[in-house]
Amino acid sequence: MAGLRLEVFKFGTYLLFPIGIMYYFGTNLDNKFSVPGFWPKPEETNRIPHSREDIKAEYEKIVERQRALKERRAAEEARRAGAE
After folding, report:
1. What is the largest CA-CA distance in the chain?
2. What is the per-residue pLDDT for 71?
3. Structural domain of residue 8, as residue ranges?
4. 82 shares a domain with 54
5. Quick one: pLDDT band at residue 39, thresholds 50, 70, 90?
6. For residue 33, how many C-alpha atoms fall within 13 Å in the half-sphere facing its CB?
7. Does 65 fall in a domain?
8. Cellular component GO terms, alphabetically (predicted)?
9. What pLDDT does 20 receive?
10. Are residues 30 and 52 in the same domain?
11. With contact defined as beta carbons under 8 Å apart, do 59 and 49 qualify?
12. With contact defined as beta carbons under 8 Å apart, do 73 and 67 qualify?
């Protein structure tokens, strides 16, 4: 008779262990596995310009940034050429 109780206990353990694991990992996931500050806030993300004026302003910023980078590279090359 002890063998039957042991088998019932083992069977119950085999059933309850996976159910308990699924219950533990399946409930309240946002609090258990979340990393605070992982996703950027909406004000920190890029915004797509929709109006014509916004697109033009963004284009001008890009062109100005490229122009400044080109000038910086030219100055760096001139400095290197002067040093040699």
Report:
1. 98
2. 97
3. 1-34
4. yes
5. confident
6. 6
7. yes
8. mitochondrial inner membrane
9. 93
10. no
11. no
12. no
Report pLDDT digits (tens) over 60-82.
999 999 999 999 999 999 998 88
For residue 24, tell me if it sits in a domain: yes
Which bin fits 17, alpha (ψ -120 to 50), beta or left (φ > 0)?
A: alpha
Q: What is the pLDDT of residues 4-15, one digit of tens each?
A: 999 999 999 999
Nearest to 58 by CA among 67, 68, 49, 45: 49
In angstroms, the Cα distances linking 10 to 23, 24, 29, 74 are 20, 21, 30, 77
pLDDT of residue 84: 67
pTM (global) more than 0.85: no
Total domains in the chain come to 2
Examine residue 13 and state whether it is found in any structural domain, yes or no.
yes
Determine, yes or no, domain membership for 40. Answer: no
